[in-house]
Amino acid sequence: MSEMVLHCFPESGGCYKAALMLALTGTPWRGVWVDYFKAGQTRTAEWRGAHSVMGEVPVLEDGGLVLTQSGVILHHLAERTGQFGASGKEEAREILRWILFDNHKFTSYLATWRFLLGWAKDPDPAVVAFFRARVDAAFAVADRQLETRPFITGDRPTIADVSMSGYVHYPDSEWPLDVARRYPAVAAWIGRIRALPGWQAPYNLLPGPRTPPHA
Helix crossing, 125-146 with 184-194: angle to 10°? Predict the structure, then answer.
């Protein structure tokens, strides 16, 4: 398999989802750092024209194929590698169900809350509290699901687990939710993901200089 190229930056959980899938599947790849914070690179007309009309990362290049949106990238990599995908139509629907939940609620709320805590300038406390409450609600759903199974859809990890891993492996200080005490099933699941061969933490896996919280 030829080397893939991932346009990314280290603080992005969406980028981490794609990079983690590449690492877990042993896929050859290299990262191209995107200056999101200082230059606002993804928001330029040049970026949108060359890479993604949505003005976002991750962007994955697989030969002549260019893919955006982490959910699409994860599905492509599962098909390409034969790993972490569905074993049949029923499981495929269940994987899609949880990836949609992740994109709309689990990762979405957690990413926004983490950004407000660490990188936003003078965020409104009411807005921060609003997103914190949404994070708690999403984690409660995941905790109930994981009380009866080791991974989000069953006995083995799939791209649904990779998708929901977007932000939970960043340092606890960036999203102080006290997961071990409040959501023990989620905490145990996080441990199982970290035990998978090839797993690496976001700041070890993604290339480029970091912009620490409150920098």
Answer: 80
Cα–Cα dist 69/37, whole Å: 19
Confidence of residue 56 (pLDDT cuts 50, 70, 90): confident
Residues 15-41 as b or e (16 or more Cβ within 10 Å = b):
bbbbbbbbbbbebebebebbebeeeeb
> What's this model's pTM, rounded to 2 decimal places?
0.95
139: phi then psi, degrees, rounded to nearest 5: -65, -35
Other residues' Cβ atoms within 10 Å of the Cβ of residue 72: 13
> What is the structure's pLDDT at 77?
98
203 with 10: CB under 8 angstroms?
yes
Assigned token pair, 80: 């390409």
Which residues are CB-neighbours of 91 under 8 A, at least 6 positions away? 153, 154, 158
